[in-house]
Amino acid sequence: MRVNEMRSRLLACASAAALLVGLAAATASAAETAGVSGRNDGDTVTPIRHVIVIVGENRSFDHVFATYKPRLGQSVFNLLSEGIINEDGTPGPNYGRSAQLRATDTTTYQINPTIVGPYATLPPPTTGGAPQTASDSNPPPFATLAAAQSADHDVPKSDLFELTTGATGLPPHTVDTRITYDGHSATALPDGVYQLSSNTLNYNDYAGSPVHRFYQMWQQTDCAKSHITPTHPNPRLEDLFAWLEVTIAAGSNGAPPPANYGTPSYLGEGSIAMGFYGSGSVSFLTLIIFPDLQHAHHVGKLP
Fold first, then answer.
1. What pLDDT was estimated at residue 55?
2. 17 lies in some domain
3. Which of 126, 131, 188, 215 could form a disulfide with 270 if both were Cys (CB 3.0 to 4.6 A apart)?
4. What pLDDT does residue 120 have?
5. pLDDT reported for residue 203
């Protein structure tokens, strides 16, 4: 099953969210009608009585909310607030803080391997296992509306066509040429974060999936006590995301990687972990998903 390589099923999530909200509202209405109150019902600071969280697996906070701007009196810690990017997604004054480094690749696992130096350009992000074409026998996406409806009958008929769109049009595990950023192609991206959404890759398209295995995520964060200083109390430098994805990536359950791994002909996941969606996604996504922070580390967001 190619779940880890696919886009989030936004429509399915929206349907689930609507169902859960409806159930919660019905439950609350029934309780109020019956005169039943919880012990702490009157202790809320706001009128909010129920909060429903839908988790989007393998996506980080900055992947979705990099350009989110909180309401007056609230704050958020993301790429925009840290000046790493501007509101329009272009590089901000602190863009260099998202730079990625290269490290030594040895046969012994290390949480903080020896650093070699920075990248001149990011390793190209790849398509991973994202689908090249639509198919009813190997979805998603589906090739026909009939197959889509049969597999996901809760989606309104008017929206079923969404389940037939988004194929990459590119072979798996090749450079994702749909990705461009700040005037640079996928093979010449600056060393830092980049915006996924563009005129050539929209919110409905499939893309590669970042590494989300436990020990690989530890190594990506480049964590060591020696990194702690009075002005930098966080032991994580968050600078090995790209390096790990082109050296070991998601791993292969103990099997050796292909002989050409890490070369231009096979880049693993490339630097797909450094991507973020622009502000156009936030107004919709905030309503239906919350990133799985335990499962996927934040990307590019530094202390």
1. 56
2. yes
3. 126
4. 92
5. 81
Query: Which residues are registered as beta bridge partners of 236?
Result: 223
Label residue 38 by pLDDT band (50, 70, 90). low
Q: Is residue 248 part of a domain?
A: yes
Please name the residues in contact with 224: beta carbons below 8 A apart, sequence gap of 6 or more.
111, 112, 235
Residue from 72, 73, 85, 105 nearest 302 by CA:
85
Residue 111 has φ and ψ, to the nearest 5°, of -70, -35
- Enclosing domain of residue 258: 1-132+168-303
Report the C-alpha gap between 153 and 208 in whole angstroms: 27
Please check whether residue 5 is in contact with residue 126, taking contact to mean a CB–CB distance below 8 angstroms.
no
The structure's pTM equals: 0.75
- Torsion angle, CA of 89/94/96/99, rounded to 10 degrees? -60
Neighbours of 34 (CB within 10 A): 8
- Has residue 144 been placed in a domain? no
Q: What is the rounded average pLDDT for all residues in the chain?
A: 77
**CA–CA distance, 116 with 97 (Å, rounded to integer):** 17
Q: Total domain count for the chain?
A: 1
Alpha helices in 108-238 (DSSP H): 145-151, 214-221
What's the rounded Cα separation, in Å, for the pair 242 and 122? 7
| Residue 181 structure tokens | 């950023």
Residue 158 to residue 142: CA distance in whole angstroms:
15
Does the residue 156 lie in any domain? Answer: no
Q: d(Cα 62, Cα 78) in Å, to the nearest integer? A: 6
